[in-house]
Amino acid sequence: MRKITIFDVFMIILPWILWYFTFDVFYSHFIYAMALSVSVLGIISLTRKEVREKYKSCNALCILLALLIAIILYFVFYGGNIVSAKLGLEGEVLYVYGLVPKGLLSIFLLALIGVMEEAYWRGLLQQVILEKKLNVSWLFAPLFYGFVHSVSLNLILVVAALIVGLFLSFTAEKFGLIASSIVHVVWIYFMFLKILL
After folding, report:
1. Can you tell me where the transmembrane regions are (predicted)?
2. Which of 8, 26, 126, 142 is least surrounded, with the fewest CB atoms within 10 Å of its CB?
């Protein structure tokens, strides 16, 4: 187990500050604020050699598995949308989807968000700080990802982030950050661009 540094503590706290500004202060420009926030986290993470080393190669089978995981995750959310509607919580779900405008810029920004989040959440936080330095199982990483969304005061979003985090953390652990980035981006496209159902 390696020693936790001031940089590590700062990088654990920073998403809470950025998510607050993204979800509360600049929520009317959500996609731009989120793209900026995760770019800050991702770029800082990618300056670390130990994060860049976590990008394992991803062959054709790895890509197919990543696509399959993204599709499974989409259908988990499709079922979750049905359940949330039955519970009268569809307004919470629709609020989240309504934060992303249609257009080519959104397509680019959604991909950027998915890739940069993986560099930070599954790269720096999960595989370097939690696993390598704290010797904690990857199963704890989704808790950080889920609970940081509590700044939105949207319970559905917190639960959704916990579920997404579990899928993405598993993928990063088993197949690497390229695979988890593929899952993240494809799933985001399915959810926000309504590519499937």
Report:
1. 5-23, 29-46, 58-79, 94-115, 136-169, 175-196
2. 26
